[in-house]
Design a protein that fits this description.
This protein is α+β, with helices and mostly antiparallel strands. It has two domains: 216 residues, no CATH class; 67 residues, no CATH class. The chain is 44% helix and 17% strand. It has ten helices and 13 strands. The strands form four sheets. Strands 7-12-11-9-10 form a five-stranded antiparallel sheet. A four-stranded antiparallel sheet has the order 3-2-13-8. The mean pLDDT is 91.
């Protein structure tokens, strides 16, 4: 069987919603001239979802799973934009897609997975962690020697150090299983852009924030009951998953629209995509791109 090598990080079916009349994206990067490109050539990387561990290769296992998630979501996308009432199956499909879309990005890989790798190294060197893990396994009826646990953990960390994709990719399914229920638990809305304005999208397209004490905090955790989840699905439509209180307009005001686009740019890692050329967007990208830093000022675990 022929394996896929060119793997898309952000699905083409989503990026293709943001093309101009010529079928191409307008791509903004910090400090660089505007680029024009087709969706199939963007957010793509060779063997992005592949790794080898203990002599075994993934052989498109995760790529095939992602493709299935995308294919299912593509059939729901139109319903999201049209504000159609979705079936329970469609709701679960879309929640899984949004969760996977967040978890698969380069930004998560660079800013969260690498930090987790360092944390695992610290845990391996902590005898208390090994003893706690040994006890947890014993409670499930599995008896393991501490030396064997230590050896297995060291082997896993060695694999993580040798190939950063190991931890990032292998954790994707569990990451999706954790995030998707939080999206399902929220009220869903589709907000339209005001006339003459368009939503942007980026290479880290799922945005989170919360309002607390009258202030907006971007990068709020999915498990926080106050967190609002945003995903632009076209230049004219924004998917919102919000706490079960308050109302949302059918169409944003111009000021709300500008603030949402600002958050979209702050969440971006390298690229922002649009369906039109704009000096205002370029200025916004130059000033705000990647200022929401995962593990620094966003998605920071609570202090213990």
């Amino acid at each position: 069987m022929k394996l896929t090598k060119k793997e898309h990080i952000i699905p083409r079916m989503l990026l293709s919603q943001f093309v101009a009349a010529d079928g191409k994206l307008r791509i903004y990067e910090k400090g660089k001239p505007l680029r024009v490109s087709r969706p199939e050539n963007e957010c793509v990387e060779s063997r992005y979802f592949e790794f080898e561990f203990r002599g075994k290769k993934t052989n498109n296992k995760y790529e095939n799973w992602m493709s299935q998630v995308e294919g299912n979501a593509a059939a729901v996308l139109e319903g999201i934009m049209q504000r159609r009432i979705l079936s329970r199956q469609e709701v679960e499909i879309w929640a899984t897609f949004v969760a996977a879309l967040f978890g698969r990005t380069r930004k998560v890989k660079a800013q969260i997975s690498n930090a987790m790798s360092q944390k695992v190294r610290q845990q391996i060197d902590n005898p208390d962690y090994v003893r706690d893990l040994q006890l947890a396994l014993l409670k499930h009826g599995e008896l393991h020697y501490a030396e064997d646990i230590q050896r297995n953990l060291t082997e896993i960390h060695a694999a993580m150090s040798a190939d950063p994709s190991y931890f990032f990719v292998s954790a994707l399914p569990s990451r999706v299983r954790i995030i998707a229920p939080d999206i399902l638990a929220r009220d869903w809305h589709t907000i339209a852009a005001p006339e003459g304005h368009s939503f942007l999208i980026s290479d880290c397209p799922v945005v989170t924030y919360k309002v607390q004490d009258g202030r907006i905090f971007t990068g709020a955790g999915f498990g926080d009951e106050k967190t609002i989840v945003l995903l632009p699905v076209s230049p004219n439509h924004l998917f919102v998953a919000s706490p079960r209180r308050g109302g949302w307009p059918m169409v944003f005001s111009e000021s709300d629209m500008q603030y949402v686009n600002r958050m979209i740019v702050q969440f971006a890692h390298r690229n922002v995509y649009a369906n039109a050329e704009s000096e205002d967007v370029q200025r916004l990208v130059d000033k705000e791109i990647d200022t929401t830093k995962f593990g620094e000022n966003a998605f920071v675990p609570p202090a213990r």
